[in-house]
Design goal:
The protein is α/β, with parallel strands linked by helices. It is 35% helix and 13% strand. It is built from 13 helices and twelve strands. The protein starts with a helix and ends in a 14-residue tail after the last helix.
Length: 412
């Protein structure tokens, strides 16, 4: 079995000391202001991978230019979920209509950044790092996890789904956990069976004990404690996923993933940042049916998620953000699909959200080489959620001061 010294040597060898920079002291300063366990605010991020067609998600149904640009893909005023006299949601999104009717859904239009990149990989890196120059090697949520307290002791950031950890969660002190591979959240020891479990618990208990001395709250000690917190919570996570009363669902679609998140929140697991994705939005051909299916899956999953949270009394603690790496071009192509574009829309949902349409719909007569122009930098959305919702200093996370989107400031 590992000793305390051996364990710390191995884990700290791969830690994020350099990447964390000045974020750690901010975390320590905010600890006293943190909410009580079980009342911490939670952010759930849903990635729409492939480049969601924002123009057929939030639809300017009253604009003749839209109908001219989309002769086969256009949605008429009789088929949209009207949000007003000019725009409406795609009819596949009825699963989120209740959130809209309750004033719990913000529809943010014209989101992007200067000099947009239309490559899937580069654009996704930009959104996940919050750095259009792609000079930052870590993710915005990973960096943010250092700036929020977690008195419940859960894994600070949790990815639900198969594959590698998203860049957005990299750089978290103590690491982030990806649930999709049954072995990805286990800490293996030397002995097997019950002996191995006892060894694991004993080691984690020793690691959690205060180190003492004048350097107890220095940077090294902080990272050690965050790693211990993560590893200890991983034990609880394993029990929740594999025990006799296990929370199920992470092997399925987005609805199953979000139901798992709702279950973990209800069990008081303590994670404050969750991340899931829905793939398939690269709709170059025959877009109509596939986009309808994807938007229905998104809306049904989000709607059911908040219903589950309301049942357990936790909905007021949660906000959910959707994003995609870019939108699609205004003009549909010859294959009844759309190609890579630029500015698009995103959603922020939850009872604390000031519901409504945020910002004007980008002009269809004033385009950027055939693409919609943005008016709201996505980093302003991030800054609003970091400062206003998670209580984390956005400047420490993103390296610059960004203004807020006033309509996304939480109620109260």
């Amino acid at each position: 079995m590992f000793t305390r010294r051996q364990f710390l040597t191995r884990t700290l060898r791969g830690s994020s000391l350099v990447a964390l920079g000045t974020v750690v002291p901010q975390f320590i300063a905010q600890t006293a202001r943190a909410a009580a366990p079980g009342k911490d605010r939670i952010l759930v991020v849903v990635e729409l991978a492939g480049g969601n067609d924002g123009l057929n998600t939030v639809i300017p149904y009253a604009d003749d230019l839209y109908h001219k640009a989309r002769p086969t893909l256009r949605r008429t005023k009789d088929t949209v979920i009207r949000l007003g006299d000019h725009v409406g949601l795609h009819s596949g999104m009825r699963g989120m209509q209740a959130l809209w009717d309750q004033g719990h859904l913000a529809v943010v239009q014209g989101v992007g950044y200067p000099n947009p990149d239309r490559s899937h990989f580069e654009a996704m890196d930009i959104w996940q790092s919050a750095d259009p120059k792609r000079a930052t090697p870590t993710g915005w949520l990973g960096r943010a996890s250092a700036g929020i307290d977690n008195r419940s002791g859960g894994v600070p950031a949790l990815h639900i789904g198969p594959g590698r950890l998203p860049m957005a969660l990299t750089g978290a002190p103590g690491g982030a956990v990806s649930v999709g591979d049954q072995n990805s959240f286990r800490l293996e020891m030397g002995r097997g069976g019950a002996d191995r479990q006892a060894d694991r618990r004993k080691l984690l208990g020793e690691l959690a004990a205060p180190a003492g001395g004048p350097g107890e709250y220095d940077l090294l000690s902080f990272v050690q404690r965050r790693q211990v917190q993560t590893l200890t919570a991983v034990e609880d996570l394993r029990d929740l996923l594999e025990g006799p009363n296990a929370v199920r669902g992470y092997g399925g679609g987005l609805q199953q993933k979000l139901q798992l998140v709702a279950g973990l929140i209800a069990r008081g697991f303590g994670t404050r940042i969750f991340y899931a994705s829905l793939d398939g939005f690269d709709t170059h051909a025959d877009q109509a049916s596939s986009h309808q299916r994807l938007l229905a899956e998104l809306a049904d999953a989000v709607g059911s998620f908040f219903q589950a949270l309301k049942t357990t009394g936790h909905d007021g603690r949660v906000q959910l953000l959707t994003f995609s790496e870019f939108g699609r071009r205004v003009q549909e192509n010859g294959s009844r699909g759309t190609d890579h574009g630029a500015a698009s829309c995103l959603f922020v949902a939850g009872p604390a959200v000031r519901g409504g349409v945020v910002g004007r719909h980008p002009s269809l007569s004033d385009l950027d080489a055939g693409d919609l122009k943005f008016h709201t930098d996505f980093r302003r959305v991030y800054a609003t959620l970091l400062d206003g919702w998670l209580g984390c200093e956005s400047k420490a996370v993103m390296g610059d001061q960004w203004g807020h989107v006033a309509e996304l400031e939480p109620k109260g």
